[in-house]
Design goal:
Length: 176
Amino acid sequence: MSFRVYISLGSNIEPERYLKSGLSDLSYHFGKLLLSSVYESEAVGFKGSNFLNMVVGVDTDLSIGELVSLFKKIEQDNGRLVGAKKFAPRTLDLDLLLYGDKVTLDPVELPRAEILTNAFVLWPMAELAPDLTHPSVNTSYQTLWDEYDKTQQRLWPIPFAWTPALADEASTLYSL
């Protein structure tokens, strides 16, 4: 059985390089990627350089645990240190936001709580899946974004170009 999952990508160490690398890794594992715009934002929870963030949608039959393990491996392959502090600079951060409409705490919290609290997750989520309903609060992502207090976090879309390695395969569609 296949599920649509949404993944948050973020970086503030050579962020363009590592977002592109993360997208290439995800493309290798999942093929078709649905991409939000890329947003720049100030660091949240610590003083540091600005982050680039986006949300990616993929279809998969991997389990939640398999996805989390894969994301950790991709992060490590891209220079993320095992056991690094949560609020610290990073090369690549991949977080599973949604796994279909599953609500669970095991092996990770789904839907991920930061969808509702962080503009750098909610805005790209609303862009990518505006009519999708958050499974815990039963409200569309567009409505959640419309009602979000946008004075809480500074965030702006930036130009970003990524060319997938598989772009010439007719069976693979990429949305930029």
